[in-house]
Hints:
Layout: H1 3-15, E1 26-36, H2 40-51, E2 56-60, H3 86-99, H4 117-129, E3 134-138, E4 141-148, E5 151-158, E6 164-174, H5 181-184, E7 189-190, H6 196-199, E8 215-216, E9 219-223, H7 257-262, E10 265-266, E11 270-273, E12 281-282, H8 291-297, H9 299-315, E13 321-323, E14 345-346, H10 354-358, E15 371-375, E16 400-403, E17 415-417, H11 429-432, H12 435-455, H13 464-472, H14 491-500, E18 521-528, H15 535-541, H16 562-578, E19 585-593, E20 598-606, E21 612-619, H17 626-633, H18 643-652, H19 657-662, E22 670-679, E23 682-690, E24 696-703, H20 710-714, H21 727-739, E25 749-755, E26 760-766, E27 774-782, E28 785-797, E29 818-826, E30 831-840, E31 849-863, H22 865-881, H23 887-890, H24 893-900, E32 907-925, E33 933-947, E34 958-972, E35 983-992, H25 996-999, H26 1004-1009, H27 1013-1019, E36 1026-1037, E37 1047-1058, E38 1070-1073, E39 1086-1089, E40 1107-1121, E41 1126-1139, E42 1151-1162, E43 1166-1179, E44 1182-1192
Parallel strand pairs: 1-2, 1-6, 2-3, 6-17, 18-20, 21-23, 24-26, 38-39
Antiparallel strand pairs: 4-5, 5-6, 7-14, 8-12, 9-11, 9-13, 10-11, 15-16, 19-20, 22-23, 25-26, 27-28, 28-29, 29-30, 30-31, 31-32, 32-33, 33-34, 34-35, 35-36, 36-37, 37-40, 40-41, 41-42, 42-43, 43-44
Helix pairs in contact: 2-12, 3-4, 22-24
Amino acid sequence: MTRIGFLLSAVLSLAIGHVRPAQAKTIRRTVDVLVIGGTTSGTSAAIAAARQGAATLVVEPTPMLGGMFSAQGVPAADGNHHLPSGLWNEFREALRAHYGGAEALATGWVSNTLFEPHVADSIFRAMAAAEPRLEVLHGYVLDKVYKRGNCVTGARFSRGGGDRLEVSARITVDATDLGDALPMSGTPYRIGMDARADTGETLAPAEANDIVQDLTFVAILKDYGKGADKTIPRPEGYDPAEFAAACQTAAGQPIPAEVMLNYGRLPNGKYMLNWPVNGNDVYMNIVEMPYARRDAALRPAREKTLRFIYYIQHELGFSHLGIADDEFGTADGLAYLPYHREGRRLDGVIRLTLDDVADRYGRPSALYRTGISVGDYPVDHHHDCRPQIGKIPFPPVPSFSVPMGVMIPAGTDNLVVSDKAISVSNLINGSTRLQPVVLLTGQAAGTLAAIAAREGCTPREVPVRRLQAALLAQDAYIAPLYDVKPDDPDFAMLQRIAATGMTHENEVIVDIYVDKKEKVKVHKIYIDGNEVLSDRKIKWAMKKTNEKGNLLHLFRTKKFVEENYKNDKNLIIEKYNELGYRDAAIVNDSVVRYNDKTVDVYLTIDEGKKYYIRNIDWVGNTIYPSDYLSAVLGMKPGDVYNQKMLNKRTMEDEDAVANLYMDRGYLFFQLVPIEGNVLNDSIDLEIRLFEGPQARINKVVINGNDRLYEHVIRRELRTKPGELFSKSDLMRSAREIAQTGHFDPETMDIKPEPNEENGTVDLVYNLESKANDQIEFSAGWGQTGVIGKLSLKFTNFSIKNLLNPKSFKGIIPQGDGQTFTISAQTNARYYQQYSISFYDPWFGGKRPNSFQFSAYYSRQTGIESSFLSRSYNSLYNNSLYGGYWGNSYLGNSYYDDYYQNAYENALDPNKSLQMIGVSFGFGKRLEWPDDYFTFMAELGYQAYILKNWEYLYYMQNGTSHSFTLGLTLGRSSIDNPIYTRRGSQFTLSAQFTPPYSLFSKKDYKSLYESSSRADREELYRWIEYYKIKFKSRVYTPLNNSEKYTLVLMGRADFGLLGSYNKYKQTPFETFHVGGDGMTGSYTYATETIGLRGYDNGALTPYSDGRAYTRFSMELHFPFLLQPSSTIYGLAFVEGGNAWTSLENFNPFSLKRSAGVGVRIFLPMIGLMGIDWAYGFDKVQGEKGGGHFHFILGQEF
């Protein structure tokens, strides 16, 4: 079949439907980037995306690639002659190579670059065929754009015979000539001329209108040689007077017919018939017309071009010029599509205006700094067929940059817009619509789409500098510099300087413009049309648009902010979608000023009907059976069609369907739910999977580490080179890094960089070090005088380098992540305590087996026995006999007596308690039940040396010893040790001493009942006990914010202290319950347990607790989360109790309290806090009441 025959057959099949397949079929594709339209920009976008590594599909309704340059019959490049940028230069160089040089393209006077449409098509096809990641499909027309929430997820196409093409895509590019995807995706746009007040352009009309520029159905004429007669049949309605003024300039000067024809003269004796002066231009606004009706509507434009051809052949005598037979396969030989100069124009994140181009350096927006393509053609508008518009006196414009924001919709995600539909004003569209600019903007659009798809973000989240860097790497211009070409070694640097004033990619210039607008609040919100949701529920769904004076929204903002209002309208629709109302829409909304400071908001809602799931079909799954995927999905036929739940169960939840694949290496996996048949209130849900190949980890890169030896970080990673990629392993690795405490978990940035070509992925861990060593220096005043404490905690110690001073970082050896702590606390005479500890989480360096060592010594000295009695007698006697209301009490006698007998002067060195302890422990990270579990075994020795120590009931003199074996099973899966958002912790510990009494033949009952000092010393010479404790924490995030997350923490603790012999209960290691949980300045060999809302030790006034329980719920809310400091507030309810014997233990008998508090974490000090709590119950006959509690240190 000849080329023309093939094209003719294809077009007839598409447009008329005469050739039908036996049965309609559906083709499905899942890609990274979908490009809708093989126009000039669509073709360049697809090539650019594929070259960036994105799996790309471009769908084009005609048989040709290149749009204006080919299928629309305008093979003339206007502008950018001295700007050889990117794909435009690559295309132009291919043209020059085909025709034999630049001079061969300068055949007409409309442009210095003219060519044949089929040559442009062949060049674009060759460029596309060279990209293995690019697929091109012809003959399909866009039917529908798929969305999930605000995100475009793909599109549906159809062609003659009922065939369908279903495409799921991470990013979609609308490269259609008229912006056809905009209305289908619900993306705001404009048509026609903008109002002057809207754009600020003085040349714009006072009022907006829907007038677009003239369009043209182009023909390509071919010289068949003198003597040939290619005159077409006389068209119906032909009148030569229609074109009598065609042979003249726009200014009305007559010109020969040959000059008119040479306007669009092409190589190889062809002519582009696109003559604007009384030629074949026509005014016709079909922009909003459905595609299926456009052919019929455009018939008058085709007929006008045929009449013009007949005029040239018959009246002007060029009968040898006939319609080219080797260009288009249409029935009449004209171009496949008309030359539209204007269509829909996006409402983007920014809008480029004529003033931004004419005075780019004087505009406060400085949009040139975000340039992604360039142009230099003057503003060219065609309104000759609408003379009432008049000639617009456009000023000359300099070369210009097109900013990135014109491609990005303001309210739709995962959609990029190119071609003529970018966000520009009607006026400057006359320059940005020219094809070299369009081609380069398409290159930027494809590059942006590929970056967003690769990095898993929306296009608006891609930094402009990253896009500019990627374009410069393609020799594309971001600033219109004529005198520095891409082959110049300084090209990229000079482009950056011209566009941004920066010489390097990672530099940033920030201009901040503050628009201090009037503060306006919301007076009332009026809602109409709602039946399913009440007004109150709808208002509650609006997070940031709230009525003034509504107590239910007391802590919400009341200001009216346009952007917040738009988001809140989307939240209303999302709320309806959750309930199954997929068609719910806000059909009308308005904001009306109530007074100078408030506005009223009016909303009219069409709720639509409630939908249910009828069927769920899985397509494309080979790894997991459909039944299993349905079970994981947790949604079934008959359920309400909840789009939010569908998204969570397929993509977002930790146990979502997507994570099944991600955890088995399917990094390139894609999932797109498609609404299939919709019948009445039922929806057939088709979930399409593209499983893709498994990806193995190629390399792991760690950036930002300046504290630890790198192997210390790498040993915590679950992601190893050569292994299959696993999302769970990636998240676990992030958690393990955070648990070291050396890096800020709030700024940790882990980036998978996949390479789908070889099925690998590089993992880049971007870390930010933070100080983790702690110095505690504190002083306080107690009844025995000033008490001071100094503690040094080094969390990055390296014991192996202790004897190698050259390796020190500062004054100590660092880098191995070990913890070394020394502490001293004293008031010089009454109390001294000294401790030292060492902990290595990877003892030996090869396995996660831990080792710890600690030792301590403390000495406490008692108070003279006569002190209290002297003080008491002095106070009592003076009060009773010396005149309670006289000077004896309120004057100097009492205070003189107090200072003479002050505690600090009442030291009795014959009363003391000394404690010595040392312990060694070994731990292991377990693999069962899972690898969050750890097991620790610890051997310890303690000695208690008492001398006249009358503060213990059981024993006052002698030396007691204990050897202990401690076993601890723990599990921790928290995400952040400082401000924890999710996960849990628990420890179950048991501490035992040998049961000496079971092997001894001593009569412990007699020793217990004896009051002899010697018997007491003998009874407690060897301490024996068992101690069982359980502590648990569970953290649950209450909102979806990744940073300022509300967290609910639940806690449950209990402890039991038992004995092997009822006559040999230990006087030590008891529980001291109540208060803030701090040990205070010193301890009487007891374990302090907090219970807020009550005095310290209130539940065990004699420090003889043998059992306790504590339960609490805390709500945490962050104020500041920074590496230098963390501050969060909390509100809590708490309950607990203590018992002096195990027989009385009753975990349901609780002392209750509630309160609020704040926590502050400073790296050099640690965690500090203050709580206020109110105890509701009586203890020792007194109600707890209100108490302040001070917290120091992390408790678990």
